[in-house]
Amino acid sequence: MLGYAYRSARPIPRGTLHSHSYYEVYYFHEGKCTYLIGDKIFVLAPGDLIVMYGMTLHCPHTDPAYPYVRTTIHFEPAGLAPYLESPYAVNVLQPFQELRNHRLRLRGAEKEEAERILAFMHRQQQRRDRIGDNRMRLAFADLLHFIYEQCLQPLRERPDLPSDKERTVQEMISYLEAHYADDLNLETLQRHIHLSKSYLAKIFKDVTGITIFEFVYRRRINQARILFLFEPQLSVTEVAFRVGFKHLAHFSRMFKQHLGVTPEQYRRHQRQQAE
């Protein structure tokens, strides 16, 4: 599986936290975007490329006053087997496996090279024939080698969060990631961060585009999906309590609201896929 969307400018719904089982290469062309990935916040600039481990909950928060232009590539690691079996192969999946979610700030010649490869992939994709498909995949292998090389180089120390407000939101997200299954409330966050509840709620929404409790519920639902995938012996009730829901009905309602199916339907589908 190789999904390629070149220079997409399609608007996205605000606060669309999501995850997926495949890896992703994300390249930011233009716009104003704050990207939330797990417990990290990236304030993006043109030329930023993100190596993304898809199972981590992630969400772009964009400014609708500016065009939001990005290129995304979704791929299954197994599809790269032919490029990893050669005696001279390098493990181009290493950045995804070890760095998980990592931002490269490409500038100058490196930015030009990345954009050249992306444009070439698009031209081959547009051919819609077997030769074009194979040349696109070969170009993608070249892009992964380029990314691998960039990740080997020492990265300059740059502050990812340019303001006190964004540093505070980063601290909040780190706390929520560690305690999403606990009995959370704004008073708990206030005691931990030593700022007022109303201020914390406001800056979280300003930076991420969603509320604190939207983040918590989506984080719980995402963890439930992971448990259904990797621990299929667990019941729906066990999963609900493990991820922090006190009532099964609330868990089922939130799960269906976010994924369109009930937890039992999702669990049954995962079991069928594994058979």
Folded structure, characterized:
This protein has about 280 residues and is of the alpha+beta class. The protein has two domains: about 1-150, Regulatory protein AraC (Jelly Rolls, Sandwich), CATH 2.60.120.280; about 165-275, Orthogonal Bundle (Arc Repressor Mutant, subunit A), CATH 1.10.10.60. The protein is built from eleven helices and eight strands. It has helices at about 80-85, 95-100, 110-125, 130-150, 165-180, 185-195, 195-210, 210-230, 235-240, 250-260, 265-275; strands spanning about 1-10, 25-30, 35, 40-45, 50-55, 60, 70-75, 100-105. Strands 1-7-2-5-8 form a five-stranded antiparallel sheet. A three-stranded antiparallel sheet has the order 4-3-6, covered by helices on one side. The longest helix has 23 residues, at about 130-150. The radius of gyration is 20 Å and the shape is globular.
Oligomeric assembly: single chain
| Mean pLDDT metric | 89
Largest sheet: 5 strands, antiparallel
| Top-tier CATH class of the largest domain | Mainly Beta
Order of helices and strands: EEEEEEEHHEHHHHHHHHH
Beta-strand share of residues = 15-25%
Broad shape:
globular
CATH fold assignment of the largest domain: Jelly Rolls
Could you outline the blueprint of secondary structure elements for this entry?
Blueprint: E1 2-8, E2 23-30, E3 33-37, E4 40-43, E5 48-53, E6 58-62, E7 69-75, H1 81-84, H2 94-99, E8 102-105, H3 108-127, H4 130-152, H5 164-179, H6 186-193, H7 197-208, H8 212-230, H9 236-242, H10 248-259, H11 263-274
Helix pairs in contact: 3-4, 5-7
Protein name: Helix-turn-helix transcriptional regulator
Keywords: DNA-binding, Transcription, Transcription regulation
Domain HTH araC/xylS-type: 170-269
